[in-house]
Amino acid sequence: MLKIESLHASVGDTEILKGLSLSINAGEIHAIMGPNGAGKSTLSYVLSGKPGYEVTAGSATFNGQDLLDLAPHERAAAGLFLGFQYPVEIPGVSNVQFLREALNAQRKHRGEEPLSGGAFLKIARAQADAMGMDMDMLKRAVNVGFSGGEKKRNEMVQMGIIDPALAILDETDSGLDIDALRIVGEGINRIMRKPDKAVLLITHYQRLLDYVQPDFVHILADGRIVKTGGPELAHELEREGYKELVA
Amino acid sequence: MNALTLPTRHDEAFRYSDIEALARVWPVAAEAVHVGAGESATRHVVLTGDAVAARDYVITIAAGGTCTVHILNAGTAFNRVSLDVTLHDAAHFELGGVMIGGDSSEGIGATLEIVTTIMHLEPNATSNQVVRSVVGGHGTCNFLGSINVARDAQKTDAAQSVKAMLLSRTATANAVPQLEIFTDDVKCAHGCAVGELDATALFYLQSRGLPPHEAQALLLEAFVADVFAGADAEAELQSAARDALGRLS
């Protein structure tokens, strides 16, 4: 589904990704762990097309398409979803209005009919319910006045509504208490653990992986993947720290 | 000043004006609006055409009266709306103004302006002005707002909030608040900000599938929407504003 080969990327004059390779197949959940500054967030931004991140070498293909050639909204329409580490507050724009327009823009891009207001609301309500989010909250301005946990939950509601093929979740577990972590973990499993979908979890900690069991764990250090293993690698990390494993 | 003499840029209220364009419609006949004691009146002005236009209102609000004015100034040529408002005891004036400016039909920048002169003549009067501008291309949007509080106008409460959003390096926004206060027991709040669209918010919306132009339109609609909330002609104003925003690139 996603194939990254020897990817180099810079922000300004600083090279952050230095030859990163990674392959993710449908039905798999991958976790990327790594110390601060290793390039985890940069990877998520490069894959989703954030301005300011320049790819200098290497490639990334998504279902055979050159991902790096697509604009951010085209990547979304192709089935890519980015869960933000810091979801953005947008005053004056309601969640439901924005999500309906976004979903219909994706459908239009794929040559599908737009969803009616009623059909959309039905999906939105089901996803909000599943994440324990009040429908009133979904009608409010995007993330404005939401707590850290509510913002992350809102990301999961958005993911449920958009129903992507590949989700890149950038530290979705940061800022969550134990209960919220469980709810978010269950959300990821419910929405994304399917044979035709895949997930790339970016995290600092083992604890999210207790709820979302990864098939592969990668350690990212200094812009490259330095070690790959199964779920046991995350436990090893938790015990021994990055220093031991990366050295 | 003789009302028939064409102003120059030395006149404070015409400092950023397009005098050459103004000359084509000068002199401008003022429309007088008198709001009687305890009465209320509303006016809305929508300028969206490609012709030079200037509107001038002289508004007097008698004791306890209220006047609410909504302006959408979104023409593609020089468009000016000026308001000269006099408030008597405990009167209230409310302005919601939106300017959406860009290039004219000839592809050069057009100047849009709203100019207000609010005179708090007697005690206890209140005024509130909210103006939002969105400027693209080579456009210019000006807001000049002077608030004058007379010697005996105690307990005046005057507020002015002005924000402008620039969409291009060649767009210009001028905001000139002016306060002249000749008494001590007054509240005059004013705020001005000129900025650009939040790049992070734009990326967030695009990452969910909105094309850049739609993401920008959504943010701009949100930026101006509050100004017309609750207006008598809200539907007309909002839809005209949406159309004007859609024309901006």
Summary tags:
heterodimer; A: alpha/beta; six-stranded mixed β-sheet; four-stranded antiparallel β-sheet; B: 249 residues; alpha/beta; six-stranded parallel β-sheet; 4 helices; 12 strands
In short, what is this structure?
Chain A is α/β, with parallel strands linked by helices and 247 residues long.
Task: Give an account of the 3D structure.
The complex is a heterodimer of chains A (247) and B (249). By secondary structure, chain A is α/β, with parallel strands linked by helices. In chain A, strand 4 and strand 5 form a beta hairpin. In chain A, helix 6 runs parallel beside helix 7. The model of chain B has no long low-confidence stretch (mean pLDDT 94). With 249 residues, chain B is an alpha/beta fold. Chain B has four helices and twelve strands. Chain B has one domain. Chains A and B meet through helix 2, strand 7, helix 3 and strand 8 of A and helix 2 and helix 3 of B.
Q: Measured on Cα atoms, how large is the radius of gyration of chain B?
A: 18 Å
What is the residue-averaged pLDDT of chain B? 94
Overall shape of chain A = globular
For the record, the count of structural domains of chain B works out to 1
Shape of chain B: globular
Order of adjacent strands in the largest pleated sheet of chain A: 6-9-10-3-11-12
Poorly predicted segments of chain B: none
User: How much of the sequence of chain A is in beta strands?
Assistant: 25-35%
SSE string of chain B: HEEEEEEEEEEEEHHH
What oligomeric arrangement do these chains adopt? heterodimer
Largest sheet of chain A: 6 strands, mixed
Q: Report helical residue fraction of chain B.
A: 10-25%
Q: Structural class of the helices, strands and pairings of chain B?
A: alpha/beta
Distance separating the two termini of chain B: 41 Å
List how many beta strands of chain B DSSP finds.
12
Pair of chains with the largest interface and how many residues each contributes:
A-B, 32 and 23 residues
